[in-house]
Amino acid sequence: MIIEGAKRLEQVQEYYFSRKLAEVRALNAAGKKIINLGIGDPDMAPSEETISALVRTSMSEGVHGYQPYNSIPALRQAISHWYKRTYGVEVNPEEEVLPLMGSKEGIFHVSMAFLNPGDKVLVPNPGYPAYAATARLVGAEPVFYTLSEQNGWLPDANELQELLKDGDVKLMWINYPHMPTGAEATADALSGLIELARTHRFLLANDNPYSLVLPNDKPLSLLSLPNALECCLEFNSLSKSHNMAGWRVGMILGHKEYLQCVLRVKSNLDSGMFLPVQQAAIQALQNFDGWHAERNAVYAQRREKVYELLDLLQCSYEQNTVGLFVWGKVPEAITDVEAFLDEILYEAGVFLTPGKIFGTQGERYLRISLCSAEAQLEEAIKRIKSHVTATAALSL
């Protein structure tokens, strides 16, 4: 006898990378030696001081028990100082900062805390699939707003006004610097969204984990803008900016009443973050500017190799975008982008991400991660060049 899963699971699919990386593992098991350029999983280590803090604390007595649901005060204080130093934003560490075990869990917590069945949620297209998935899991309705290359991957004000006219939107997700495109939002664009949120009485949530990775200018926080605390939340994470993806350290910042709602969900789902991880995070948040600059210099060199790879595939792309990825537009001659990339996976042994997994606006695009060493990127270029040459020869 098999017990059926919950009806809510009919609204979501297994996460794309969960399925695709299983496929890649199977190819590797068969001896294919796939080069994975698909996922944003930093391959460089955290700072030495961060690792030392983890080891040192782990060897101390009395550190292996449960921890406060909202973390130790020192971590909230470190996050507050980091936001002041990095973004020029002052937040009260006792009331306006809530550490998370990865910002991905916080996306679900916010959905649980604020959305009722039938509420509408504005979700970017293209955008991170978790925004729509979590809305569906709690019975809300994701409503996709269009981001386009022509508009700099920013929301269209006229479209948003149309989507908001019925007054049933409770939450809007934004993600700047944007994943997957790497586009940045201007302060004026974000200020306009804040005013929309105030006028139409919805919560505006910015997912902001990429702002320290190859920034073009001073990193921008939504909370640095006037009136933001009234209607906004911001997520951040150490995963990308501090090479700590597997450590699961994130944060949500905003008005104390909003964070209390989130904490009511969170405190029923976990038992606090491991203390040595918290102490290591405190240390990581003190990384000096030179450490970040060294990391970004490595990513900048890798990005040049990715440009070379995209040129081989005759893709167009914006240069000097922000974050761990390069977003490329596939030539019109390629009618099925996903099939094209599967061919590269199986024939050249290189995994690239199809843009369609981020929404219909990504169907003509692909995404390449910068989280592989230069030697791996050079090998990927070599393999793809061989594949392109062989394919061209067969078409003669």
Automatic annotation (TrEMBL):
Gene3D superfamilies according to UniProt: Aspartate Aminotransferase, domain 1 (3.90.1150.10), Type I PLP-dependent aspartate aminotransferase-like (Major domain) (3.40.640.10)
GO molecular function (one): transaminase activity
Keyword Transferase: yes
Transferase in keyword set: yes
Superkingdom, taxonomy of origin: Bacteria
SUPFAM superfamilies: PLP-dependent transferases
Keyword annotations: Aminotransferase, Transferase
Cofactor(s) demanded: pyridoxal 5'-phosphate
EC number(s) reported in the record: 2.6.1.-
Domain Aminotransferase class I/classII large residue range list: 32-384
Family to which the UniProt record says this protein belongs: Belongs to the class-I pyridoxal-phosphate-dependent aminotransferase family.
Record-linked PANTHER family: AMINO ACID AMINOTRANSFERASE, L-GLUTAMINE--4-(METHYLSULFANYL)-2-OXOBUTANOATE AMINOTRANSFERASE
Record's protein name: Aminotransferase
Native source species: Rufibacter roseus
Lineage: Bacteria, Pseudomonadati, Bacteroidota, Cytophagia, Cytophagales
